[in-house]
């Protein structure tokens, strides 16, 4: 029989819970110890918890502006943690590491869908295009080309197992309503593609699988509230392409007239599955609950109601269920005993059986009859040791790796070529078919262009550099001198594109860009082709005889910017005393500042640089941030319209940073007094407004409860007084 046991709260999920900021969980993965779990939130934080003590053992976050895009996993062989942020930036660290900016980093050439970590097989990386690599092979050449296998299909689910010493990965994809299953055997480099048998108006909602005796059992939860089973033998005839997989009904999720609308499910052992969903009868309100079903005898074994609601996610490790319940992460323990008919119908007496079947982790189930020789174990140990040694050296050779012999020789031969010949050869080099080190080759091309700019100050191929950055997936680490030269040339258009596309710009360079953007005059920016997509939907600008006139909320403060970098006359801004309807900067400068707001940063490293920002520039930037804050507050969803517009969180973070860096100076500046006062009034009004809403929360909940109890058959008007 199976039974649900005691439950407890592992942690909160709101702002005070220590896990994320209320955005919910992305995933939960096993930690390095059976009593540890890794929580990844839908943002930028991963937390390691000790389950028995309900306390966090470690918490790591990527920089502001970066997003963790797949679950953080533990490498069980090296006890390292692996994360991917912004789809293709890989991070690897250990427990002792605190700042993720200083840990091992590699920028990959393709977007990652998921990393699966196998206890005896190491981490396996699945890319969104269907390509698969082990972590060690990937780290040998992070910029290697990753094949695109699934073309227009979208990956919906994936899982990895160990069959003996062979890592096996399975993933399901969807295209135009058709579902496909791929099975990849990594050591044999074998890939099999199947198509799931389709039925009209039926589609799979969730998958899970386990492997045993060279057979993968794929379980699918379908839209008709039934679980189907699909058997996939590992030994297949490779001559057949896209074989159709037939399915058989395993379980109907209905009992005594009630139907369970499942959202997720897990396999407990060969006879039991757990399903999370909403159980409802025809004349009753649906209730979310966790259920355990006996697939052998088609019975609902036990259930637990979850009145506070769930996110629909369910994880299972070490005889414990993990699920969100309300605003907390709940752990529910369970036990599974040998399935029997008496247990299935509830007639089994409470007796202790010496051979109670313990929890089986089907994801990592191996063939018990396989005997591993001493030589194989020794080989694996040596490989693990060499892998750890190699990784410690990777960070020191990362910048040497991109330059290959053929590319290096070609660039050396072009050293003394004419400008036309030089650029033509580089264009031909970039137009060639992509090779495994193609991304590194592009980095070398950019480096060659930058080196030529340094040796010849009059040479600056702005259009070519802009074209490369816009059409190639580059990063700052591949061409670190590019932005330095653009800053020297005051090329604000190239700097804007780099800020939008590079995920790893150092804080020092971000600050330098901000200073240049604030110092350049509006008149000079009129002739610059700046991308205005982030501002055209919300900025209010009036033009009169080519002079930008802006209105701001400050009391008549008017300041000239620093000397124009183009040695042209500075355009004076006419600042009127209004309600802040118009922007304190022109559209070009606003678009450049938005690029800075979108860039990733670490507060620890950015704050010292911001303290060096001149006072007048700090005031101007703060005015623009306040303008954005007011604009966001005008919208019901606190977001600005347009493409790549700043978010409320980004605006608030930068306002806090700027106030922390310059608060003493701003308090002493007469021209900043009115600005600070308006900011204080605006924030205080918002706090008061939300405080009043919180007071009404209890009354609104009571009103909702009363409305649910009443079912008026005729039209009526009710007046309720809120006290």
Automatic annotation (TrEMBL):
Residues 1-335 form the Nucleolar protein 11 N-terminal domain. Its main location: nucleus. It comes from the Eukaryota. Keywords: Activator, Nucleus, rRNA processing, Transcription, Transcription regulation. GO terms for cellular component: nucleolus. The keyword Transcription applies. Pfam families: Nol11_C (PF20998), NOL11_N (PF08168). Residues 409-722 form the Nucleolar protein 11 C-terminal domain. It is found in: Nucleus, Nucleolus. The keyword GTP-binding does not apply. One of its GO terms (molecular function) is RNA binding. GO terms for biological process: maturation of SSU-rRNA. This is NOL11 protein. It comes from Nyctibius bracteatus (Rufous potoo). The lineage of its organism: Eukaryota, Metazoa, Chordata, Craniata, Vertebrata.
């Amino acid at each position: 029989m199976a039974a649900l046991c005691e439950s407890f709260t592992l942690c909160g999920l709101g702002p005070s819970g220590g896990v994320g900021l209320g955005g919910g969980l992305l995933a939960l993965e096993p930690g390095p110890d059976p009593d540890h779990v890794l929580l990844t939130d839908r943002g930028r934080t991963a937390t390691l918890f000790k389950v028995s003590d309900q306390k966090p053992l470690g918490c790591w976050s990527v920089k502001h502006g970066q997003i963790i895009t797949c679950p953080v996993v533990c490498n069980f062989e090296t006890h390292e943690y692996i994360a991917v942020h912004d789809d293709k930036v890989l991070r690897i660290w250990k427990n002792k590491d605190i700042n993720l900016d200083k840990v091992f980093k590699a920028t990959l050439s393709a977007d990652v869908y998921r990393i699966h970590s196998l206890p005896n097989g190491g981490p396996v990386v699945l890319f969104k295009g269907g390509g698969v690599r082990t972590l060690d092979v990937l780290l040998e050449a992070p910029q290697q080309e990753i094949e695109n296998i699934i073309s227009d299909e979208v990956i919906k689910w994936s899982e990895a197992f160990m069959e003996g010493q062979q890592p096996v990965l399975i993933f399901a994809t969807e295209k135009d309503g058709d579902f496909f299953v791929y099975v990849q055997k990594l050591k044999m480099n074998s890939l099999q593609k199947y198509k799931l048998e389709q039925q009209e108006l039926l589609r799979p909602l969730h998958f899970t699988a386990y492997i045993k005796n060279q057979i993968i059992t794929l379980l699918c939860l379908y839209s008709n509230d039934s679980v189907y089973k699909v058997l996939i033998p590992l030994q297949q005839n490779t001559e057949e392409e896209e074989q159709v997989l037939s399915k058989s009904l395993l379980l109907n999720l209905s009992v005594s007239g009630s139907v369970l609308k499942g959202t997720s499910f897990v396999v407990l052992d060969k006879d039991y599955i757990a399903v999370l969903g909403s159980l409802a009868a025809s004349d009753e309100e649906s209730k979310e609950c966790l259920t355990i079903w006996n697939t052998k005898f088609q019975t609902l074994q036990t259930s637990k109601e979850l009145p506070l609601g769930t996110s629909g996610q369910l994880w299972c490790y070490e005889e414990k269920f993990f699920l969100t319940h309300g605003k907390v992460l709940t752990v529910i323990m369970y036990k599974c005993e040998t399935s029997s008919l008496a247990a299935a119908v509830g007639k089994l007496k409470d007796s202790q059986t010496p051979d109670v079947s313990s929890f089986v982790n089907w994801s990592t189930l191996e063939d018990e009859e396989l005997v591993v020789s001493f030589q194989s174990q020794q080989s694996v140990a040596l490989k693990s040791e060499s892998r750890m040694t190699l990784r410690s050296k990777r960070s020191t050779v990362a910048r040497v790796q991109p330059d290959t012999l053929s590319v290096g020789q070609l660039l050396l031969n072009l050293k003394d070529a004419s400008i036309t010949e030089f650029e033509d050869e580089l264009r031909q080099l970039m137009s060639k078919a992509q090779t495994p080190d193609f991304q590194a080759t592009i980095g070398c091309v950019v480096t060659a262009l930058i080196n030529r700019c340094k040796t010849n100050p009059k040479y600056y191929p702005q259009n070519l550099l802009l074209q490369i950055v816009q059409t190639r997936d580059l990063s700052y680490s591949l061409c670190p001198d590019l932005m330095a030269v653009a800053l020297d040339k005051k090329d604000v258009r190239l700097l804007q594109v780099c800020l939008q596309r590079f995920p790893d710009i150092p804080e020092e360079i971000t600050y330098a860009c901000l200073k240049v953007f604030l110092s350049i005059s509006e008149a000079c920016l009129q002739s610059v082709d700046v991308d205005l997509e982030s501002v055209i939907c919300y900025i209010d600008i009036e033009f009169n005889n080519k002079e930008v006139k802006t209105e701001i909320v400050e009391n008549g403060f008017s300041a000239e910017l620093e000397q124009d970098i183009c040695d042209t006359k500075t355009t004076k801004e006419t600042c009127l005393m209004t309600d802040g309807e118009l922007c304190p900067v022109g559209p070009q400068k606003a678009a450049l500042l938005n690029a800075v707001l979108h860039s990733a940063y670490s507060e620890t490293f950015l704050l010292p640089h911001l303290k060096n920002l001149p006072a007048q520039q700090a005031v101007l930037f703060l005015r623009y941030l306040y303008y954005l804050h007011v604009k966001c507050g005008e919208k019901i969803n606190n977001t600005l319209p347009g493409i790549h517009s700043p978010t409320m969180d980004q605006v608030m973070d930068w306002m806090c940073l700027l106030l922390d860096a310059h608060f003493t100076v701003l308090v002493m500046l007469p021209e900043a007094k009115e600005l600070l006062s308006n900011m204080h009034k605006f924030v205080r009004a918002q706090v008061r407004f939300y405080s009043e809403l919180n007071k009404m929360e209890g009354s609104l909940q009571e009103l909702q409860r009363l409305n649910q109890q009443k079912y008026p058959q005729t039209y009526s008007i009710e007046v309720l007084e809120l006290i």
